[in-house]
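Morning F.,

Quick status update on the modeling queue. The single chain you submitted on Monday has been processed. Sequence for confirmation:
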Amino acid sequence: MTVFPDIDTWRAEGLRLRRQPFAWIALGALLVALLTGALSAGFEAREWRQAAAADDARRSALVDAAVAQFRALSPGPAAAQASYQLGRGELGATRMPVEGGLAFGIDRLRVLPTQLKATLDSRHVDARPPGALRNPLLVDSGLPGVPAMVALLLPLVALALCAGLLQEEREQGRLGLLRVQARRGVPRVIVAALGWRFLALWMVAMLATLPALLLDPGASAAAGGHWALALAAFCGAWVLLGGSLSALPLSGPAAMLAALGLWLMLTFVVPAGLLWGAQRETPMPSRLAAIVQIRDAQQDSETHEDALARDWYARHPTVPAQLPAVWPASFVPRVLAQDRVLRPLMRGFDDARLRQTRFVERWSWWSPGLALTLTGERLAGTDAASHVRYLREVDAFEDRWRDALVPHVMDRSGISAEGLAALPSFRTPPRASAGSTSPAASPPASPASR
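Structure tokens below.
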């Protein structure tokens, strides 16, 4: 016996839902709330892409200014110092690449380091953010991300519409009449009622979140399609959960209380438990031990400054040795020696974060809201795997950057104006898939930067 309703049952339940003022109010409030978040996310995504385009224009202007500066300089210590300042300036700035669904994960860009720069200094020792000092407690962080707002608000509306269907009929004294009228069984009526509620929730969620994509000039149809499927799965999960609660032998208030407890459990308790489990399975390296290693690396490089300079010249016989080395030629080998220690140390944190993320993703189906949020981050390219991939790409770019500039600092002659045109620029390799969870392997450091 099938429980799929006939056309008359579909029509009757659709008319019944349309005549419920509470359903219109709940769906309207959900539409307004999600639309507000989507508009905010869409404008943020547009600003990010505009800033990325402005970065390219600014780099061209910086290159032109540097060429004019170095044409006026004769080879010598002044040009070497200018080359060093150029190598630690804004010309090596990078920006994290994003995907076509940026609006669904733009909130992650507020908390991640996404605008690093290749430099002749050590990024791992001095990571102060550029610009004026700010108090994080007083900075407006904006609205939550679109997936987070959907994960928080839509389940409440879904449960309010679905959790007390049979209880309402029984308490209003209409359950017997419903059984008489439902000639082919009450389950078909319940399926039709839940089907209309699923369709209403999905349509409202899509209509409210679609502006986030429309406002983003870099949005893609593939991201929109994946988002529509993810929303459908999310709405379906909560409608089924609400419908299951309506079938329990509970009173109406008890069913709504159970629905609230279920929402709290799946939205807050389960994600917190998964995070705890991930931290237990893959603990983060000790931050205190990392600080001690950073200080030891700094002290060791300062103590052996002369030896490091001599060793660099010995490994690069094509560069005339300038001994005793003076600043900045005496400082650059120290930075290279520090990064040989600090890069693996920092990558240990990244690897632990990746393993924790894989653990959470593996069990995220226990929490529909968490699964939806992670899907939004993957569509935006702001998930943990994408960010770690960006960090590896910056390391590889920094190696090429140093290859091009360090020899000109160490020979105390400086880079030529023609050599500026050959400076590398930050280009990210193509990705195998937007949902990949493993970072692309970065090429090994080239000999000139070791």
